[in-house]
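Researcher: I'd like a candidate sequence for this fold, 633 residues long. If you have to choose between options at a position, lean toward the conservative one.
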């Protein structure tokens, strides 16, 4: 860190001390109060009036054959700002349409890369996994169906990317219950840039119970009374231009590590307002942000009901006044506006404080997402269901949490030395190109002890499977690290937390009790989750088949032809075999040999397996993501 940077850092710590006092005086700060707490170390959005825009509802596509181009667009985030460069899917100028699929009905998604100049071209850090020099003008992309139970070749692996002019074709089997998935870019070391620019959208899976029709057997609101809410937070520049940076301390073009936004967005619009009829609504809510955990609640403290989360419906609605949501987590909620008078309003708010390392720079809570205004119209008048599963005419009850037969300890780490750019994030003290890969066996049930030795929370996502949360428990972090010195980065470090546990374990919140693909791992804690690894027979496909990437540039990278397009690995590699690339889409049994992408690749130019990672996208990009092989017995 330069002397100027270090002085500024210390100054910022003093500022945040003062702002912490101010925050303690008001547990739920208003937008005006937050805007007054402006650290000189940070960039800040232009002042803008909330509730000037109508909350938009993305269009719906219900088809077994969907084509969406990823395009460079102009999008207006607030009516008083300019239309600014963005990314969008299909006809959308930002984000994508809501895609509807149906249980046991395979469907095809084609995503064509028609991207031009990247809105964050000047912010690309080319040192991360050797991101291509021309990424800013020729962005790479791949599309991941988050929460989908998909073959590895259809999972949107970061090494299976396309450049402009190429197309990805995904075929999803949809062998899962009704639930709420989402699709988003998953490019290597640039996911944070592409998703923030706009490459994300919802996928609603329907079945014979949750049909989405007014006469659905569950008695849930449908049609106009079922609304997706894609929540994000951002920092904007002059005229409403998108800004991925939060502080001038980190030079432009360098990875920053994550930042708290100062304005909230819903479905791509800053602080919108939605008119609601006086009745029950179903909101499909997702934290599509890059970094922050939010505690969501309504400004009048009214109760609402959580009926589902990442993997589908809960057994019964859970009444609450708030939920905590980390990046990529979803909640399916029922909200009753019948108690509001015509013209009365209520806001969707957040009061989660930023993690400590963000607060040091003076980052404060982003408090507001949107406002709902009641009309005189009567809305959906049906009751909140008493049961959602396990009754006559209902889906089967959630199964009990299985007894694990194997324990796997994994670690969540970050370097905390003061330097520019900030710390490297990692899992197990390894990098993405490691060959030291987690290899759970098909048909087994494991408990994963996710040991978070950082002070901050992390949103842990495992591809292919759903997890059940057992509990969380504090650890004596200093004692654990003192007794288990961490080796240099690149050597596995996964010490058992057993001797360092503190206090009693805490079970999941009632609304976390269902199937999860993303789990919030608290700081200085162990989070225990149970995972059942399905067999190839159960899945209808072999999850350990290696395959050839669809894009020519990606194929050339793995075949050792050079021109890797920025997705080779972190640092140099050897072992390029110089063979001609096999045909795209070819799948073969894994050979056990590794290619230029380490454990994610084979020596004959194929991609193997899935990934697991932190879904705080800045962390995922550098370097909190590892390969995962689900192997045969």
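Model: Candidate sequence:
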């Amino acid at each position: 860190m330069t002397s100027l940077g270090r002085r500024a850092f210390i100054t910022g710590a003093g500022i945040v001390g003062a702002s912490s006092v101010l925050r303690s005086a008001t547990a739920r700060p208003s937008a005006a109060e937050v805007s007054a707490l402006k650290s000189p170390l940070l960039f800040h959005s232009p002042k803008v009036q909330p509730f000037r825009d109508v909350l938009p509802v993305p269009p719906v596509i219900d088809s077994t054959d969907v084509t969406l181009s990823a395009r460079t667009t102009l999008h207006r985030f607030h009516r008083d700002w300019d239309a600014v460069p963005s990314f969008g899917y299909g006809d959308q100028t930002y984000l994508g349409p809501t895609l509807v699929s149906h249980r046991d009905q395979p469907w095809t998604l084609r995503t064509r890369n028609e991207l031009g100049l990247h809105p964050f071209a000047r912010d690309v850090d080319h040192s991360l996994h050797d991101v291509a020099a021309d990424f800013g003008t020729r962005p790479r992309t791949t599309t991941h169906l988050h929460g989908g139970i998909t073959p590895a070749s259809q999972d949107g692996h970061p090494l299976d990317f396309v450049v402009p002019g190429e197309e990805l074709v995904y075929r999803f089997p949809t062998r899962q219950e009704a639930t709420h998935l989402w699709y988003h870019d998953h490019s290597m070391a640039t996911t944070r840039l592409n998703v923030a620019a706009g490459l994300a959208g919802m996928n609603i899976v329907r079945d014979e119970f949750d049909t989405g029709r007014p006469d659905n057997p569950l008695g849930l609101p449908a049609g106009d009374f079922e609304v997706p809410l894609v929540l994000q937070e951002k920092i904007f520049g002059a005229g409403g231009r998108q800004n991925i940076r939060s502080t001038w301390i980190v030079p432009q073009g360098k990875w920053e590590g994550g930042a708290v936004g100062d304005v909230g967005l819903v479905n791509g619009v800053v602080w919108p307002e939605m008119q609601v009829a006086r009745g029950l609504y179903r909101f499909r809510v997702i934290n599509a942000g890059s970094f922050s955990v939010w505690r969501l609640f309504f400004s009048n403290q009214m109760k609402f009901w959580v009926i589902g989360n990442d993997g589908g419906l809960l057994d019964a609605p859970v009444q609450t006044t708030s939920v905590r949501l980390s990046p990529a987590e979803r909640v399916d909620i029922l909200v009753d506006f019948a108690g509001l008078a015509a013209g009365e309003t209520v806001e969707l708010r957040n009061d989660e404080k930023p993690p400590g390392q963000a607060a040091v720079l003076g980052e404060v809570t982003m408090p507001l997402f949107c406002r709902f205004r009641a009309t005189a119209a009567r809305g959906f008048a049906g009751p909140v269901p008493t049961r959602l599963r396990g009754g006559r005419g209902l889906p089967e009850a959630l199964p009990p949490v299985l007894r694990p037969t194997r324990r796997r300890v994994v670690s969540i780490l970050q370097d905390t030395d003061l330097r520019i750019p900030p710390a490297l994030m990692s899992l197990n003290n390894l990098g993405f190109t490691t060959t030291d890969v987690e290899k759970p066996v098909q048909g087994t049930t494991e408990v994963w002890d996710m040991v978070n030795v950082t002070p901050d929370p992390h949103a842990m996502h495992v591809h292919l499977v759903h997890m059940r949360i057992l509990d969380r428990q504090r650890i004596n972090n200093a004692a654990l690290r003192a007794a288990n010195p961490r080796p240099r980065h690149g050597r596995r470090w996964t010490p058992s937390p057993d001797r360092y546990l503190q206090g009693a374990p805490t079970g999941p919140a009632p609304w976390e009790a269902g199937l999860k693909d993303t789990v919030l791992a608290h700081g200085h804690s162990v989070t225990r989750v149970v995972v059942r690894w399905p067999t190839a027979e159960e899945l209808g496909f072999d999850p350990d088949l290696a395959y050839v990437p669809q894009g020519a540039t990606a194929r050339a990278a793995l075949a050792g032809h050079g021109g890797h397009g920025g997705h080779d690995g972190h640092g140099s590699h050897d072992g390029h075999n110089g063979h001609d690339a096999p045909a795209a889409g070819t799948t073969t049994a894994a050979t056990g040999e590794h290619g230029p992408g380490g454990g994610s690749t084979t020596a004959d130019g194929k991609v193997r397996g899935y990934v697991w990672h932190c879904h705080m996208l800045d962390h995922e990009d550098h370097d909190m993501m590892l390969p995962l092989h689900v192997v045969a017995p």
